[in-house]
Amino acid sequence: MNTSVQNRGVAWVVFVLVCIALYGNSYVYDSIGPIADLLQQQRGFSDTQIGMLNAIYNLPNIVLILIGGVLCDRFGAARMTLYTAAVCLAGAALTAFSPNFAGMATGRLLYGIGAETFNIATLAAMTDYFTGGSIAFAMGLSLGIGRLGSYSADMSPTWFQHAYSVGWQPPLVIATVIAATSLAASLAYWLIDRRQTHQAAGPAPGTARGFAFSDLLRFGPAYWYLVILCVLWYAVIFAFRSTFSIKYFQHVHGLDLAAAGEINSYVFFAAIFATPLFGWICDRTGRYAPMLAFGALLLPISIAVMSLTHWSLWIGTVLIGISYSMVPAVMWPLSAKLVPAARFGTAIGLMWVIQNGGVAAANLVAGWLNDRVGASALNPAGYDPMMLFFGICSTLGFGCAMMLWLTAGRRRHEAATHASLPA
Ligand SMILES: NCCCC[C@H](N)C(=O)NCC(=O)O
């Protein structure tokens, strides 16, 4: 859909629908963490299997997300949002109603195939309907609404206490109903977009510049620092916060399921408001690299605080919450500034290919480390290797953010003769 021809009201209706769809998608993504302990108790799943249920989301996307980006260009954001939301619903239902691990894993695989391309399609929807001054705000706000979905999933043991007292399955059925809502919102968005496209006669999907492998080799060093930071930082955030943190809080810090889910949820809750706020500040000040380095630094600090001290869990939670809000708020607008606009889709696709590989590996390595040492409520020290692993990854990620910052002066100098680049 071409933005220049529609009224702001339609843009905001589309924004609300896309946000509802994003909310549901994030809820389903984070629906495994709160039932991890129940899966172990009631179905005898190992930590490796639980890690696999999230890792398998990422595995197909190590390849497919590049194709997904190309398909979004080819068929348009609205159609791809609708198609992928339908795939996600099928995956969520299969996960909830499967009698065994293989079926559940297949459901998560299907969900993963749909969800990452869905995320690119929703980003593309924002760029379709919001140009110029409001794009960063719209993107930050939509990321924030996605975090609301994650927050709701973490709060679900409190909100849907009865479902959790029955067992592992009812929470996943609730996730399936929410995925159906996401599909309904995607359908409404597609219908509106189709009408707008007919009225505006904007550029037809499929006219976008084609994908060329040589594009991948032309990104500068700053882009690659950002890619490595993206991989390491998201690997820790997703493997820890979305897979193992609730169980870790239960077993190491002695919280019950509801309290562990609640404290985890505040990270997402803070991000709902803080992500658009940090994006706004970043836009105003233009201090991308220092903000990114600061946000990246808070992650290893929070891991160290949680694993090496007896300080309140709130301290680690607040630190990780700031990191979780600040890094994405800066990373996506910064990536748009580091690569030419015509190759932005390719750049994000490539970043997410590598990110998905890193997140899958981190989930598997963390689960394997826990199983190998027999981490449990009776052996809380068994979680130490996992936390050391997360500490190392997040520290290396911070190193990349520092490299980005340290080379910012050179980029500024080069930018003086070419286009404007951020500090
Ligand atoms: N909904 C959770 C998975 C999203 C993964 C996606 N590749 C991504 O990085 N999105 C940006 C973000 O900050 O969530």
UniProtKB/TrEMBL annotation:
Q: Please give the family membership noted in the entry.
A: Belongs to the major facilitator superfamily.
Q: Where is the signal peptide?
A: none
**Role description:** Lysosomal dipeptide uniporter that selectively exports lysine, arginine or histidine-containing dipeptides with a net positive charge from the lysosome lumen into the cytosol. Could play a role in a specific type of protein O-glycosylation indirectly regulating macrophages migration and tissue invasion. Also essential for liver homeostasis.
A single GO molecular-function term is: transmembrane transporter activity
Which GO cellular component terms are attached? lysosomal membrane
Location(s) in or outside the cell: Lysosome membrane
Q: Cite the entry's keywords alphabetically.
A: Lysosome, Membrane, Transmembrane, Transmembrane helix, Transport
Q: What is the annotated quaternary arrangement, including any partners?
A: Homodimer. Interacts with lysosomal protein GLMP (via lumenal domain); the interaction starts while both proteins are still in the endoplasmic reticulum and is required for stabilization of MFSD1 in lysosomes but has no direct effect on its targeting to lysosomes or transporter activity.
| Domain named Major facilitator superfamily (MFS) profile: residues | 14-412
Q: How does it sit in the membrane?
A: Multi-pass membrane protein
Q: What is this protein called?
A: Lysosomal dipeptide transporter MFSD1
Organism, per UniProt? Solimonas terrae
What InterPro entries does the annotation carry? MFS, MFS_dom, MFS_trans_sf, MFSD1
Q: Which reaction does it catalyse?
A: L-lysyl-L-alpha-amino acid(out) = L-lysyl-L-alpha-amino acid(in); L-alpha-aminoacyl-L-arginine(out) = L-alpha-aminoacyl-L-arginine(in); L-lysyl-L-lysine(out) = L-lysyl-L-lysine(in); L-alpha-aminoacyl-L-histidine(out) = L-alpha-aminoacyl-L-histidine(in)
Segments traversing the membrane: 9-29, 49-70, 82-102, 133-152, 172-192, 222-243, 263-281, 288-305, 311-332, 344-366, 386-406
Query: Where on the tree of life does the source sit, at the highest rank?
Result: Bacteria
